[in-house]
Amino acid sequence: MPAADPALPWPGRLPHPAPAMVLVNRPEVALEDSGGAPVWISDRGLLTADPARLRWGSRELTVTDWSGPWLLDERWWSGNRTGNRAVRAQVMLADTELRVLLLLGYDRAWHVEGLYD
Fold this sequence. Notes:
Structural class: mainly beta
Strand content: 35-45%
Low-confidence stretches: none
Helix content: under 10%
Largest sheet: 6 strands, antiparallel, barrel
Radius of gyration: 15 Å
Strand order of the largest sheet: 2-3-4-5-6-7
Number of helices: 0
Mean pLDDT: 85
Shape: globular
Number of strands: 7
Oligomer: single chain
Distance between the termini: 41 Å
């Protein structure tokens, strides 16, 4: 008999709905707090501050809400201790074209992984 209900969601699973578009090239972006400091993940797996701004190239976008982070530790059994750890977060923007983004963070950098309608 399983220790947990197999019908429960998988740990780290993204909430519905799925992104409408998944980006293959995953452009790098900067996620910042209200003071302009980088937002990353603490040792406890939490965001280091509330995201307030996202910089994508020359664009500066206001973050109005966020969700996550969801930690990923894929293929932990393979012995590669650095290449398979990442984190995902969703950010809602004040921008009318880009409302919600799925971010993927690894190697202390954020990347846009998906776009929501």
